[in-house]
């Protein structure tokens, strides 16, 4: 612990008798002073003793430092001497190594010709045996030394082939240059390789393959290996899985046997593709090629997909430098005859299948498709008939049938989706956008033109005239279903067609075609919106049948018990149903556009209807109640303009009941101030008491 002088003195005083106030003892300063003096003397003695010890240790340390420095100098001198000896030894070793290398070169120069001479002597010995016709050497008679015999015969065969036949030596060596013994030994080696393969002796196969590598029959050895590898490998129904398993097994084995494993494995894969797979594909496709286009296309897509998947698995193996091109060529060789005319088969099948789906639907409805004009004078007649109520020809009674089917649409889209998938897989990349566009054109023809457009045309032809009684407005159901179907069509356009054409010039062509379809349908939907005339016509029939003159000029002014007229109740009920139907049939801005048009026409109808009657005071109150109910109905439109029109109409109806003295004040109110004075006057004229001089004077 650190030394603190104050604490040390306190402890010393505490231990000294009379140094503190312990147990009532009196404080004795002399005794304490004496104790301090003695203690100081002891500390001085201790300090002198410690100082002498420190000086002694310092002297000893200086002495040892001098000795250590002297020892280090001696070691440095010894190290320099050792380094000099090491350099001398290294130079001596280098000198000896140079001498040894030179001696080795001299020995090799002498030994190499000697070895060649020995080998030449052996070959001459074997050559003499061939000339004598008797092979006595153990290397030729012992079957276990077939490797050495093969090496000898290979060398003798090469020598014999280099000698001209017209020379004496060449004539003598003809037995060696002829294929007889060479071929026999080659056959023996191949037979030995075959037997070793059947026994599963990898090491023996490797030895024989290494010997045959220098023979002409090496490729035949590889063929035998490939053939035997496939024995019993294709026993299941799934030839692609069998091929993958076989290649996986051979890939592990071939590197242990052959010096060029990638070449052997590539040759095996080529054999599998050109023999097994090509035969299997041909059997599967030719069976349905002319008789069943649907099954043919399904099989073609499935087989091509499985073949490319097998190719992807084989890409993991070492097949040489450009294995991608190698496998692509193998696949192309199998399917080229089927892919050349694929799109024609696809379009033909899609056309017949789509036509069958549509015809089956119309047959189920007992409907015979009729030819309905889609442009020119017939469109003009239809517009005129709806807008002017002129009988330009009878409308078609569809009996409430929209001639649109969700099931038909799903089937057509499903067929097209599968066609897009096949097109993506089977088309050449350069032809993919063009082929996808042709499939899209088929979808447009049968879904948009033959189904949706036909239903719209039929729906337009089935719209009743505005003066028809109890008319059923089925065209809105057609609009609703057509809208739903087109959303499905648009989804398939984005999900399945766009990825195929997104980076090609066909994109703009497809977008333009889609735009033309939308515009064509919108024109017909706009024409069909004239069903609003039918709605207004229905309202007119209700008002004409239900509204009575006595409703607004009751005989007993004091005994009116109804809040609004029966005609108002029925019209509002009808309008609410039509508003709901329009909301369910359309979406987006189309809803607001149609409801605004209906609301404006609805307001005009009620306005003109109210102009037909005279109003007593109580009748005017009842008219205000009717308009208030119409205004509630107008709120369902959720269109500001329509609500504003009915607010103004409600304010106009107040002129029917307001006191004559207050007419000018009411007419100058916020809602009526901006209206034409003739409109205000026309409403005031509807009052029963209008002809009274007082009322006429006030209004003027």
TrEMBL record:
Q: Where is the Exocyst complex component Sec10-like alpha-helical bundle domain?
A: 148-699
The alphabetized UniProt keywords are: Coiled coil, Exocytosis, Transport
InterPro entries named among the record's database cross-references? Sec10-like, Sec10_HB, Sec10_N
Domain named Exocyst complex component Sec10 N-terminal: which ranges?
A: 29-137
Q: Which residues form the signal peptide?
A: none
What GO terms describe the biological role, i.e. biological process, of this protein?
exocytosis; Golgi to plasma membrane transport
Residue ranges annotated as coiled coil are 40-78
Q: Which GO terms describe its cellular component?
A: exocyst
Instruction: Give the family per the record.
Output: Belongs to the SEC10 family.
Protein name, per record: Exocyst complex component 5
* Lineage of the organism: Eukaryota, Metazoa, Chordata, Craniata, Vertebrata
